[in-house]
Amino acid sequence: MEEKANFLESISYPLLFLTIIWGVKIAEILSGLNLGFLGILPRHLAGLPGIIFAPLVHGNVYHLFSNTGPVLILGTTIFYFYRVVAFRVLIYSWIITGIFVWLAGREAYHIGASGLIYSLASFLFFSGFIRKSIQLVAISFIVLFLYGGMIWGILPLREGISWETHLMGALSGIALAFIYRSHGPQRKKYSWEHEDEESRGEVV
To answer: Which of 3, 146, 167, 193 has CA 20 to 30 A from 156's CA?
Structure first.
């Protein structure tokens, strides 16, 4: 029963975020507005608000659809397995990725939640290996299996795709995996390891 409650709580956060970004797109379509100006415009003061608003805006419905599944899966995973640091990782992924794109991106409007997605995927992948937990490493391999193809997204291979946002998101995720390596779930220590630590502590 507790596991079910934890899962429902974990999935509620990405669902809330998806409700917001779909609401933004529907409002944009109904009003006939183009909210692309709310994206990040690198090295322009007018582009600074995009650090906050860019993940909420998508170029078209296909763009939004392509981000919906990863947001739901990766968001639920991080809130379920990394509950203690999930909100911090989410917020810092959002802000740090946006700042990096503003500093280093091409002079064009960068929009969409893909930077956040890359950061969460990167965090989940590297965090499992850093913590050396069998369960978390298994999650790392699942993320690799599901989203390993995302690696091509950090290269400037397709015109009209903000590879800078993908790259900066991935780098943010790696950094956060190291920063929060001692917070949240840790590898289970076995009795023989505790005994070994105690014996080393007795050496003068």
So the answer is: 146
